[in-house]
Design goal:
Length: 407
């Protein structure tokens, strides 16, 4: 009986230590356990997930699937732009590029059915507003829809209007070039006095005035897809020809840098859209299309001669702004755009992540012109057609069907 009281003092600390150790062990193993659950993508999605309304088409993986149906169009589509017509330009690897299939994690992505889609759109119009990456998107869309209406014909109005009319369905799908969304105009330097900075003039941006190219179209479209982003950089607007921001017709003082200017323009364009575009118009905002310059920027011999998509584990080293790579701007811009769209009825078309993988799918050196690469460098920004934008079209069509058929 005597040892018992003696045991207690040393036994309890031991017990406490033991339970602390077990707690530690448990908590350090916990992340592995949850990880395991969330990455078990090989198991079929359960009914509950598949039918949930939070199905996220933007997260998933590319799977090489040689049985994937051939693209809806080839180099003969009359709506191509030469520089993106990779089949005609004999780009290597086009078969493989178009054999990768985007497979969202918890839901199915259906291939667009051009007949069904145009049927849904009958007597309605779809408009893209933004920069050349939205035009890249448009061309893919037009070439796909044309399959369902051979009478499709080019539709062009003065200025930056460009699109196609589908007579069988009375549908117009068009693009309005407005690279900054806000109105901007070149103003050459007034005086010839010596200028230490080499200033040649300014690009005046009226942050509170939408560009003429799309200001009057609000009522024409039933669906609008906006973007801006690729022009908001010092390579487009160097210090000799800078962006100067105006509000209410007067220069904003103190002057804003490009990034703050973008923030102000986003706020005011989003406000304008909310006010001027009818509320029953379906509105989307396409997030940044990532670039894939490797080994240098576009003007430093950057290249994108890849024969397969990047791995998921490589994406951050390419695109996370903290790594300060040449392609970091997509995620930076997305953050600002997402903030500006909070609380609005504009749906995010977050095509960035799925496109980040596709370093293999740009026109690169196959630009269809002999000297293009030596003059402009490789094109690691736009996309080959047919190619990745066809998947963007599938996603957009699925979202449109969902919105129009359920609401
Ligand atoms: C075609 O669609 C427009 C709306 O975009 C509509 O105003 C017009 O009446 C339609 N035309 C026909 C012939 O249905
Ligand atoms: C790009 O490549 C060309 C030809 O190889 C070379 O002359 C030029 O200096 C390079 N430019 C840069 C910025 O590396």
């Amino acid at each position: 009986m005597a040892p018992t009281p003696k045991l207690c003092p040393s036994f309890f600390p031991f017990l406490i230590l033991l339970s602390l150790f077990l707690l530690f062990l448990y908590s350090s193993l916990l992340p592995f356990a949850t990880n395991k659950v969330s990455t078990s993508s090989s198991s079929p999605p359960t009914k509950i997930i598949a039918s949930s309304s939070s199905c996220n088409l933007f997260k998933g993986q590319w799977i090489l699937d040689p049985s994937k149906p051939k693209p809806f169009y080839d180099e003969s589509c009359p709506f191509h732009r030469n520089a993106w017509n990779c089949l005609r330009n004999k780009r290597d690897n086009m078969g493989v590029i178009n054999s990768w299939r985007w497979v969202p994690k918890d839901c199915d992505l259906e291939r667009i059915d051009p007949w069904r889609f145009l049927g849904l759109m009958r007597n309605r119009n779809v408009g893209f507003v933004g920069d050349s990456l939205n035009e890249n998107f448009l061309v893919s869309f037009l070439c796909i829809l044309r399959v369902a209406d051979a009478g499709a014909k080019k539709w062009k109005k003065k200025g930056a209007w460009k699109g196609v009319y589908f007579p069988k369905y009375n549908v117009t799908v068009a693009y309005h070039r407005a690279v900054l969304l806000a109105k901007y105009q070149w103003q050459p330097k007034q005086s010839v006095s010596a200028d230490q900075n080499g200033l040649k003039g300014i690009n005046r941006v009226d942050v509170d005035v939408p560009a003429d190219e799309w200001v009057s179209i609000a009522d024409f479209y039933d669906i609008l897809i906006f973007n801006t982003g690729h022009w908001w950089g010092y390579d487009k607007f160097p210090k000799e020809t800078p962006l100067i921001f105006y509000r209410g017709g007067k220069p904003i003082s103190p002057p804003l840098g490009i990034s703050d200017g973008l923030k102000v323009v986003l706020e005011s364009m989003v406000q304008y859209i909310q006010k001027a575009v009818p509320s029953n118009t379906l509105k989307f905002w396409r997030l940044q299309s990532p670039r894939h310059f490797y080994g240098g920027d576009w003007n430093q011999n950057g290249s994108c001669l890849f024969d397969k998509p990047l791995e998921a584990a490589e994406l951050d080293s390419w695109f996370d702004p903290s790594n300060n790579g040449v392609n970091k701007e997509a995620r930076q811009l997305n953050k600002m755009i997402t903030e500006a769209l909070e609380g609005t009825d504009i749906q995010l078309l977050d095509l960035t992540h799925l496109s980040e993988f596709r370093a293999d799918a740009h026109p690169a050196i196959w630009l269809g012109k002999k000297d293009a690469v030596s003059i402009w460098g490789q094109d690691c920004m736009h996309w080959c057609l047919p190619g990745v934008p066809d998947t963007w079209v599938d996603i957009l069509a699925q979202l449109i069907h969902k919105s129009l058929e359920t609401g």
